[in-house]
Amino acid sequence: MFDSSAAEAKLELDGVTSGYGPVAIVRDLSLSIRRGEIFALMGKNGMGKTTLLKTILGLVAARGGDIRMDGASIVGASPKALVSSGVGYAPQEQPLFQDLSIRDNLRLAVHSDRELGAALERVFGHFPFLRDRLAQKAGTLSGGEQKMLIMARALMLGPDLLLIDEISEGLQPTVIARIADALRAEREANGTTILLVEQNLNFALDVADRWAVLKLGEIDDSGEVGAGSRERVLEHLKI
Predict the structure, then answer these.
(1) What pLDDT, in 10s, does the model give residues 148-195?
(2) Within a 10 A sphere around the Cβ of 15, how many other Cβ atoms?
(3) CATH number of the domain encompassing residue 37
């Protein structure tokens, strides 16, 4: 069982500000995520959750503050360099190549064909349906199957840090349960640190060790998952 209180920081954000054009979306935000924990970041639409993930990954430039992974600053590092150093990303927007096969979509996640076989076996353990459908075009999959393919691609190289953006949106409970099982298994087997951006409270609080609510680019509240967590989060999400 993961003991979050005893773990050192895997990802640290210290006074991070970022945004688009003249507008600051993330504002002087500080957050520490412990090695090997699942951390759920929740909030209503437009609060800066996706911008924060993109800032960590280097897709949006940080205007201030510092972002550290394993104690070393990653501000200014390219997304390619971060992925190579062990960061996985499952974005909210549709990242699949619809006319390519499942195999080709997954192949894009590895550096060479030498790595492909072992990486495929890794994700087949989480999503067995992929094994017999590698030649099928990604665009012919159902919505839930496409989300599982997105997760599988993010897991292909066994990331140390996994950033996930609204993966459960529009999914049936059975698919959400399959993804939740995959996240737990990755954490338990490999010590993967997971930052999960979500609006589905039941899913987020079921898999997470700790949580925080983002409001207008700032942390509004945070805590350990336990009795009373749902009520606290709901209070912050009230319209």
Answers:
(1) 999 999 999 899 999 999 999 889 999 999 999 999 999 999 999 999
(2) 12
(3) 3.40.50.300
